[in-house]
Amino acid sequence: MPPPSDIVKVAIEWPGANAQLMEIDQKKPLSSIIREVSVSALAGANGGTMFTTDLFIYIYIYVCVCARAARQLLDRIQSHGIDARLEALKELAKLSADPTFATEFISMEGIGTLARLVESGTQYLVSFCSLLSFGEMLAFTLTAFLELMDHGIVSWDLISLSFIKQIAGYVNQPMVDVSILQRSLAILESMVLNSHSLYHRVAQEITVGQLIGHLQVSNQEIQTYAIALINALFLKAPEDRRQVSTEMASTLAQKHLRSIILNHVIRGNRPIKAEMAHQLYVLQVLTFNLLEERMMTKMDPSDQAQRDIIFELRRIAFDGENDPSGTEKRKAMYTKDYKMLGFTNHVNPAMDFTQTPPGMLALDNMLYLAKLHQDTYIRIVLENSSREDKHECPFGRCAIELTRMLCEILQVGELPNEGCNDYHPMFFTHDRAWEEFFCVCIQLLNKTWKEMRATAEDFNKVMQVVREQITRALAMKPSSLDQLKGKLRGLSYSEILRLRQSERMSQDDFQSPPIIELRERIQPEILELIKQQRLNRLCEGSCFRKLGNRRRQEKFWFCRLSLNHKVLHYGDLDESPQGEVPFELLTDKIPVSDIKSVVTGKDCPHMKEKSALKQNKEVLEQAFSILYDPDENLNFVAPNKYEYCIWTDGLCALLGREMGSDLTRSDLDTLISMEMKLRLLDLENITIPEAPPPVPKEPSTYNFTYNYG
């Protein structure tokens, strides 16, 4: 991510003195900037003649033009001419994305003017124009307002209650223009994400139930904005307001909301766009995070209500058996039954649930299986209790460990990743998707245990195989729980062994001394080949997305290395490019000789500044920064792990340092293995053709005969 665009560096030179580098804050009024530059320049020149560089002249003229345009637009917006006002608002909506123009417009109380236009409502605007023109004017007004606020110059906390009510009114109206509705939803989302105080006000005006109607429309943009606002309300609910979180959890768990998202969004007639996929992923993560409280709650062995749940598990499994009358005999029977249920602590199984995670969540899953899938539960328990002692699958221990594993796989309790679109449609197909997912996986575990003919000593091995089966099945993105079952049936233990063997063979590494010596000789030239590939990729460049709270207002920037490897060029883009971006469009640059170091993860300045991202492991893992003279930094968040490795490797190669990413190690192993195999084939005088063999032609007929003569 580039340095703040509000700060511009200006070089001022004068005869007989050293050049002075100044930082100009474009948020300040133009008069203040001119005064600061003049005072500094005159003081440095010691009475000499001041010479300003072309860059400063350009900035000066540009700021003057922006200031003049802002004043003219503000006057035209407040005029009484319908056409003039409409054109002014239309032009303002385009120019508001420019930080210099925005600074000048805001310094003239432009935000307040736009807010008053919105607060005055339909009555004020319609008095000057037709209802059709009013819709256009309001849409442009809201667009400009949102763009101006997005620069972060003005605090969202200054927004009035009447403005919030007016915007909420547009969202709650049954028939409202699509453009107005889109911008209103986006404004409310930004309020919730950027201000704790506004959260309470917005939550009073807008409920999740009122947003459900916007999910049933055919416009996917409106659906995306509506789900984004639902996510924002859920994500920013204050921790001290437990009731709000409980109400949100109840609403999200309703079949009505889930079925609408499933039928009108996921199974709609339009393909899911990237932003919608991200919002569905966020909703999925936030829904699973409702389990965090139970996951981190230890069982209290002295709590009778909690102990009764364990008694209920025993009763359902061994329903036909009568309890003996004697206390000692009853204890002995309970101990035997708890052992058959697979608990580690046969005397007091409550102790098995005192470790977090998974805490009480594991017991909840077991009870759900026992009550809702009673036949499956009884079959698993009784089937294992009748096996030889060394081959029995301990249901209790397996259920607890499986719950912990599923929490890790689905990242329960972690913040959503800003760049992730990895939602699973099947979790929207059932009201109790988490519990049903557990029920499918516990049956898989029992099946895999039998296929492996496992004993208690093999417990960890079985869990590793089951984790691999589940992750491979999830990667196939089954659209329903039934499809998940089918995928898991195809991933039997024998199939996992076959896949492992196949993957091992593809990465075969010979360990004989001659082969090891050959590897050592080949490695330097392979590393040089990888280095050149990384530098070539940096010359091609990559597009990065700026971190922000409003993803639908996507902002991008592009960075690439000069062909002579001496300068990094970068600059902002209006949209994600489809190919290579010319150097001429990238206005900013950093000489490679000025780069001091490259830092990653938590050491990056932008990760230290954004405390909310500190808990987001995936963002941290894809963040890196270039530190360069004098005490400046260029901040990145890679779109994926591959781009992160490419850029960190390339920058290290550029600075003459070792490339140490996982991608480099993987590429090195693959290329060395291929090169060694080619050389070994050459030793056997096996000629490798320059071109692949031709594809066989399809036969004209499939009526084959065989001559037995």
From TrEMBL:
GO terms for molecular function: SH3 domain binding. Keywords: Apoptosis, Phagocytosis, SH3-binding. InterPro entries: ARM-like, ARM-type_fold, ELMO_ARM, ELMO_dom, ELMO_domain-containing, PH-like_dom_sf, PH_domain. The keyword Glycosyltransferase does not apply. It comes from the Eukaryota. Residues 305-474 form the ELMO domain. GO terms for biological process: actin filament organization; apoptotic process; cell motility; phagocytosis. Pfam families: ELMO_ARM, ELMO_CED12, PH_12. Involved in cytoskeletal rearrangements required for phagocytosis of apoptotic cells and cell motility. Acts in association with DOCK1 and CRK. Was initially proposed to be required in complex with DOCK1 to activate Rac Rho small GTPases. May enhance the guanine nucleotide exchange factor (GEF) activity of DOCK1. PANTHER family: ENGULFMENT AND CELL MOTILITY, ENGULFMENT AND CELL MOTILITY PROTEIN 2. This is Engulfment and cell motility 2.
